[in-house]
Amino acid sequence: MLNSAKSTKSVISAEPEPITLDWPATALLIIDMQRDFLEPGGFGETLGNDVSQLAGAVKPIGAVLTAARDTGMLVIHTREGHLPDLSDAPPAKVERGAPSLRIGDPGPMGRILIRGEAGHDIIPELYPLDSEIVIDKPGKGAFYATELGDVLEKYGIENLLVCGVTTEVCVNTTVREANDRGYRCVVISDGCASYFPEFHEMGLKMIKAQGGIFGWVASSAGVLEAMKVSTT
Ligand code: TIU
């Protein structure tokens, strides 16, 4: 029969316009869903933030993560944090502001934002499988001083479904880095969150404005719908 080969592409309903993704060339990138940002006593709270603002992103990410696992999509988790000796933590980052605890200080979940500590790990609801990739990053962007670019090249990835926290900080920085490197980014609107709801809204608007200057924005429902089509 002609045209019997299954298409590996489908269309995501997105803004500023629908986007067709080739699923084998697409990865799910989950940014910094760590206890340090989402739970009391971590880095986010030391900065004076209400960490409950981020809770709404967990379920939508969980739904997309489950679908990604079901379809065999490449899943990459990132974690922001520093080496125990702080050699990768710029003084400008450690010394800024007047937090209740600074990066490296002992807190209720271990040393703040330090690799290997309980607070640095990913929340139990979204915990990576052994088969999934975890990228440790010292900065906001997931490409800066990490192996992410090499990993994406190795797996032939051209498109990224991006979610995580926070919308205007690590998600936006990573999407901008990815955009400059030629990746199509679809940001999952309800799979991102900020301590500042208005920054979340603006962070998404900045991505999709001007014809999608940095990428596309879609709901988790829209992404899941398109992923369903990709497997039928
Ligand atoms: N403070 C804040 O909004 N974010 C961060 O410090 N890192 C991430 O966004 N992951």
Question: How would you characterize this protein structure?
Answer:
There is one protein chain. The protein is an alpha/beta fold and 232 residues long. The chain has one domain: Rossmann fold, CATH 3.40.50.850. The protein has a six-stranded parallel β-sheet with strand order 7-4-3-8-9-10, with helices on both faces. Helix 6 packs parallel to helix 7. The longest helix is centred in the C-terminal third of the chain and has 16 residues. The site of tricarbonodiimidic diamide (TIU) has 10 residues, from helix 6.
Topology (SSEs and partners):
Layout: E1 9-12, E2 19-22, E3 26-31, H1 35-38, H2 43-46, H3 58-71, E4 74-80, H4 91-94, E5 106-107, E6 110-111, E7 133-137, H5 148-154, E8 159-165, H6 167-180, E9 184-193, H7 197-212, E10 216-218, H8 220-231
Parallel strand pairs: 3-4, 3-8, 4-7, 8-9, 9-10
Antiparallel strand pairs: 1-2, 5-6
Helix pairs in contact: 3-8, 6-7
The chain binds tricarbonodiimidic diamide.
Give the CATH level 1 class.
Answer: Alpha Beta
Q: Could you say how many structural domains there are in total? A: 1
Strand order of the largest sheet: 7-4-3-8-9-10
Output the number of helix runs. Answer: 8
